[in-house]
Amino acid sequence: MEKRRVAVRAIIIEDGKLLCVRLKKYPGKATSDGQDYWCTPGGGVDIGEPLVSALERELIEETGIKPILGRLIYIQQFQHENSEHLEFFFHVINAKDYRSIVLEETTNGVIEIAEINFIDPINNVVLPTFLSERNIALDIKDGNLEIFNYINPSSV
After folding, report:
1. Phi and psi for 87 in degrees, rounded to 5?
2. pLDDT at residue number 35
């Protein structure tokens, strides 16, 4: 394993729908299209940056909206392309604020995001796959922290 990437992700749910993004193709990465699946908003944590601060920064950059963060709901650990990935998923309480996002009014939204919308995670391809298999609203309500470890990168 060559490196470790730490990321934070937002769980923003309203009326059973999850706020998700379709990412634009990363420059210089021919294999990572991003347009064929949805994922939750968020991104990488800078070295020494607190997780909560990183998620606030990422959401403001991508959506222009400051999140009100709830608790940590999920942690995912997986291996992909000779690196280990750790992702921390936090509940964002102010879901209603994310109903109308104008990517053109954000610092990074137009650069990184092809599409953003509240979607049904059960009937759409959402990565990581556990988000399509969980009752997210119940997980938030129950207050249990779920940890997912994947050895096979195709399972993420």
Report:
1. -125, 135
2. 67
